[in-house]
Amino acid sequence: MSPIIKIENVKKFYKQSHALNGVNLTMNEGDEYLIRGASGSGKSTLLYLLGGLDRPTEGQVIVNQKNLVELSDEELAVYRNRYIGFVFQFHFLLPSMNCLNNLLLPARLAGLSSEETLEVQERVLGLAKTLGVTQCLEKFPFELSGGEQQRINIIRALSLKPKLLLCDEPTGNLDSENSKKVIQLLRTLSAEFKSTLVVVTHDPVIAESFSNQILMKDGMIVRA
Length: 224
Ligand code: ADP
Ligand code: MG
Prior knowledge:
The protein is of the alpha/beta class. Helices cover 37% and strands 27% of the residues. The protein is globular. It binds adenosine-5'-diphosphate (ADP) and magnesium ion. Adenosine-5'-diphosphate binds at residues 14, 17, 19, 37, 39-45.
């Protein structure tokens, strides 16, 4: 396996805190990784830097041989759209669009050809069927339960077959049975799309099942 991610001596400082304090990390293409650590240990910050949502104060973030530090804001936006799928605890579905339009938004932003758009449409409809949310597609996000919204969110994150699927406490507001289902789904789908999966969770049962575990403390990786 070749490394898809290389993080070198990454630091992220805010006025009041050192969120990341010299992180070095390699991740292999197609593998799955779990990040654990107490609240405030820097897990989300690390995910945001990987996803190009923020920039490090120091150090290099190299994804798929691109050094994110050297990209312009416009290039970072393209990177996020084409390479990254995000799943957060709280859903960022747009309230003014029905779920199908929410799901097709990344494809529209990517400016795909009509043939590629059709392919995405078929993938999204297929996933909706697999995840049991076909009946939600014409509805608006507020008409859905938390679990349904999270499944729509997952489908949107996967719609463009991202190289990297970043999940920040994706089961934070679900009960344990639904949490297990969601994690299983993320693993199955990322394996199918050959995406590298990175999950942040507090749930010890979920954590146990991952072979690659990264433990963070005070902005550093204490075990990888
Ligand atoms: P975790 O996800 O592990 O709970 P975070 O990465 O969210 O940790 O935060 C790490 C540290 O950085 C915390 O002390 C947090 O308060 C601080 N932090 C995170 N984001 C910001 C921000 N936007 N402004 C100031 N401090 C921040
Ligand atoms: Mg966090």
